[in-house]
Input
Amino acid sequence: MVHHKIVLFAIICLVSATTVTNNQGVMDSYVNPGLQSQIDELTQSKIGHMVIDLAEVTMRVTGAVDSLVEGVKAFGRQIEERLKLENTQWEVVESEHNAKVISLSSQANQAEFDINREKKVLNSELIPRLHELDDILLGLKAKQTDNAQSFKEAEAARNTQHDSFVLTTTEFTDALRNIDEALDLLTDLFKSGEVRAAFIEVTDEQKHKVNKALRQVKANTENFGHQYSSFIQALTNLTEGFNFKDRQVLKEMCDFLNSLRLNIFDALTKAYKDEDSQKQQDELRRQQLTAEKAVFDQQYADFYQEREDKTVRISDVETMISTREADLKAYQDRLRTENNNYSANLKIHDDIVSSVQQELAVLAKALQVVQTPPFLDFLNGRIAKAFLLMKIYFIHQLQKRIK
Output
């Protein structure tokens, strides 16, 4: 049992002596300063520290470091395989990232193109046309209003013409009736008495009737205007100084009234012709205004429908622009997130590659160091130091047992 404890203590002493964390010892003063600097540098990393420790253990066990060199080389190859795998996996990540960037960029560019295209259509075509249609409809509305006003004016003018016609024909008819009545009275006077007599007998009643009829004719002709002024004056003279007994004068009066009657009849005939002409002109004017109204109404309906269509189209385009703007923002956000994630992953990848490359560099340097004669001398010195400590320990134990 005591023997086992001694062996265990010796092994502990051996392992303790193999650590190079603290490179101070009795024989360390003989280490090459350049080698010590290299060992200190290697032991700054865990893998370098491990190689140095394994080198000493291997040297103790086998008396050489060849097996360690092969093991470190194999370990290095494993690290290189890990680095290769990391780079291969990163190529996949980078390829997927590039594909996403290309896809999102393409979609964002297409959305931006769609937005610019629709805005161009909206601002250079649809809105200007809508304003143009507003002006056209406003102009057509004014034409429709003018057309309706023209209808009213034509109707009012025609009513005025017709009222004037009715009044004129009524007056002319009344005048003709009064003239006919006067002519009947005068003809009766003219036919009374002896045919060859120069004068005839006239009663007061007959004279009164004739004067009344002549005054009615005079009153009628006074409303006819200046073209009947000569007739009016002649009637005035006749009614004031008319000698109903003189057969010659009666004849002249009848001739005068017949002439006036013919003149008024011609005027009445002309009034009817004028009325017919005015009716035809009014009908033509109404047809013209009706045709114009139909054109204006059709044009207004067509342009109004176009304006409605343009309004719907503008709404659709604005909706599409809003939708594509939302799409563009979504693509840009996804692209930004993808790039941010890529940057974070790239840093992780670079850190891994850097760490592995540093490990490989440490391994390469460690392999170089452990195979140099100064390092082998360094290991032999440390082993000798450890055996010396064990020897001193055993001697001390033996001395205790002897006592």
User: Anything to note?
Assistant: The chain has a mean pLDDT of 80. The CA atoms of residues 215 and 239 lie 7 Å apart. The radius of gyration is 69 Å. The chain has eight helices and no strands.
